[in-house]
Amino acid sequence: MVQHFLIDTRGGLRPRAEKDGLPPVGRRLESPYDLEARYTRRGHRTWVGYLAHATETCDEDSVNVITDVATTVPTGDSVALPGIHIRLKRRRLLPAEHLVDTGYTSVVLHDTAARTHRVTMVGPLRTNNSRQLKTGDGFARENFIIDFDQREVTCPNGQVSGNWNELPAMAPYTVVRFDKRQCGPCPEKRSCTSGAARTVNFLPQHLHELQARNRSDQQDPQWQRLYASRSGIEGTMNELANGHRMRRCRYHGVSKAHVQHVLTAIAVNIERLSTQEPEDSTYRPRSPTAFQQYLDENDLPRPRWWRQGQ
Q1: Which of 117, 123, 11 is CA-nearest to residue 77?
Q2: What pTM did the predictor assign?
Q3: pLDDT tens per residue, range 203-247
Q4: Is the CB of residue 187 less than 8 Å from the CB of residue 158?
Q5: Class of residue 243 by CB neighbours under 10 A (exposed 0-12, middle 13-18, buried 19+)
Q6: How many degrees, rounded to 5, is the angle at CA 265 between CA 263 and CA 266?
Q7: Which of 182, 185, 211, 199 is nearest to 144 (CA)?
Q8: CA dist list (Å): 177 to 132, 174, 183, 265, 273
C-alpha cells in the first residue's frame, strides 16, 4: 500500500503519481526477493541491505575478541546501542567503559548506560552546530549563564530572562525566550540573533552538566589516548567486510543475515584465538613437509586452498 498509494487531504487512498515521488527510504521496498532490505548511504558508499554493528574487547594484554554482533535495518547507529548493552549484560560481558564513535553517542544514551548498566560511555558528543559557534563571531549557548535553581538565563550583556518553558514538543529541551524589548536596544543583537529576540534551548540540569563535562573531557590528552583504543574496531570491520566477504549477504531477511554475521564473527574469533598458545602449552608445530620445504627454498608462496576455494 505504501509503495503505490497515498492518503489524500480527505483521508482517502489515491494512486501514487509521478509528481508524488517515491515512498520514504525507510519504508521503500527495494527488492521483490527481500522485503526487509532497505537502501542506505554511508559516506560515498550506497547499498541495499542491512547494517552490522560489532563490539570487541580492547585490552592491551590480551587478544581482542568480538563479543557482540547486531544486524539491523538501516537506521541511526544509536538505535542499536540499547540492545547491545542488554545482550552483553545477559552474557556477563558488560564493560566498565564502552568506547563508541559519534554515531552511537547522545547525552541521553550516556546517561541511560550509566544509570541502567553502570557503563561509562567514552565517545565524542556531536558539537553545537549553531550559526554563532560556526562563525565564531557571535554568542553561542555556551556564552549564556543558566541558573537552574532560579529558572533564569542571563545573556552575555547582563539581560535576564525568566521566560522558562518546558514544552512537550521540545522535550527533553527547556526553552527560554528573551523579550524583544531586551534584545532590540542591544548593540550586539546582530551577532546574537537574526530574529526579534534570542531563544536559548538546553537540556535538563543533569544532562546539561553531563554534556559540558563530556566536551571538556575531549580536550584532555588522557581521554584522547583512551579513545584512540577504539580504532581497532575499524580494522575489525574491514576484516569482516573484505577478509570474510560479510558485505555480501548470502541469505534473505534480517534474521538470516544476522546468522551469517554471527558465524563470521565466530570464525574471526577462532582465527585470532588459534594464534594464542598458553604459556604452559606442550604443543609444538609439526615439521614442514618436503613439498613445503621445496616452496620455502625457492621463495614460492604456500597456497591456502581452503580459502581460495570459497
Answers
A1: 123
A2: 0.76
A3: 999 999 999 899 889 989 999 999 998 988 988 998 998 889 898
A4: no
A5: middle
A6: 65
A7: 199
A8: 17, 10, 10, 52, 59
